[in-house]
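User: My advisor asked me to double-check a structure prediction for Cyclic peptide export ABC transporter before group meeting. I don't want to rely on an old file, so could you generate it fresh from this sequence?
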Amino acid sequence: MRLLSYLLRSSPYIAVLAMLTAFISGIGNASLITLIHTALNTDEISSQSAWKFMVLVCFALTTAIISQILLSYLYRKAVFDWQLQLSREILKAPLRELEEIGSADLLTALVKDVTSVGSSLLPILPLCTNVVIVLVCFSYLFWLSWQLFVAMAVCMLIGALSYKLVLFKGHEILKLAREESKQLIEYFRLLTGGLKELKLHSHRRQAFLDKNLEPTAASIQRRFFKWSVMHSLTQTWAKFLLFFVMGLIIFIFPKYIKFDAEILTGYILTLLYVRAMLFSIMGAMPTLTKANVAFEKIEALGLKLIPETSQQSKLPDAIESWQSVELVNVTHTYYREKEDSTFTLGPIDLKFTSGEIVFLVGGNGSGKTTLAKLITGLYLPETGNLYIDGKKVVDNSREHYRQLFAVVFADFQLFEDLLGLENPHLDIHAQEYLTKLQLNHKVQIQDGKLSTTALSRGQRQRLALLTAYLEDRPFYIFDEWASNQDPMFTKIFYTQFLPELKARGKTILVITHDDKYFDWCDRIIKLDHGQITTKLKPVAL
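Assistant: Sure, here is a fresh prediction for Cyclic peptide export ABC transporter from the sequence you gave:
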């Protein structure tokens, strides 16, 4: 039912038309069996009956083809729409929540779960057709003999309950397999990302295979095998059940219920006809079960396939002029998985003014990157507030506030397309920066697209710096940018790039350990275990 609801909400007109043609096709198919049964019990078949039969066949065939074409369109459109909507949901969600969910879960939801939900559309309209056929045929059987129908229905109900019991058990196994699949994806990510480390250390490589990858893959294989066994049992039982019922009708029920040979013929003929439909209905259950598991996992992540409103909010522009950004009594607490402990940053009281260079220093794990994410509005403070020019940053203004910043984080992500940069001379300016960053011999720019990002770590950092320059935001933050640069570029960064940005009226916050260049900033902030311990002038610490 939830799948039908999502389908109707995402493509209401096409979905209704597809289901309507499926229902009509089902009625046409069911009418054929009643016509055939009548013809078998008639001494002479009239030409009118023959024409009626041909019309019904063409009608059922045409509506079935139309419903299948609409179904194919719905399937492709639904998967596309749902992946796009989940992408929007992810981009709207708070960064801290997304980091806690993890990239493996998000990728599984975007690719595997949405595909599982979409694949359930393939049997759903044929399922509607078959349900209509079965209902019409069963109504015909009830009309032939209600006593025989009740006896048959009781036997089929008992069989259906046993079928449902096995199906429920398979659903639980499938949920466990889905949980382990995200861990397997994470191991695959480690495998592809850690090729050098694994090749250089044979014991680590073997331990990774023996203790991580192989046990997880084997466990998933066992669970899917159990699910396949249960699936096979349900399918075999579905076939056997109908033959069992027909055997009761032929050999057992006549001893207790009086009916003539014509009714018996009608029951056997109809049951043989609906056998394929019943088998198709039961065969669709595992696919729908997988879709239900995918639904539950997507919803468990706090994401929705269908937006609550179709209204699109206006994209905010970057803040053109400002004087100060201030953090007042700001704190933020989060869980550190590696240390199995919580970490609290703050309370923090800081003020940044337009046109200054500030260095942020401190040991590993002191909270420097977390502070940068709080300053930029990516993390929400648990206590305290952010202010821009004395005005408090609230939920309605947070997105606008974030447009103040151009940031190069340590775990930056490059985009080959220079997206969102409205500049008629973008290629010219980008080429100038590529030359300044000594990347013009490796990377070219055309129509706002970089020719490649497959470079060394240090070169990729320079490309990230290029993107930040082109964004031309008032407030720049660099998180350990020079950590992978050679001494020459490190010196250029501190002695040329930063002063040039300051000369353009930009505010720069640099997270750094390079005490050699401390005299190139206006002030230094030292962070220790989440607390600001000193605010210094630019002298060596």
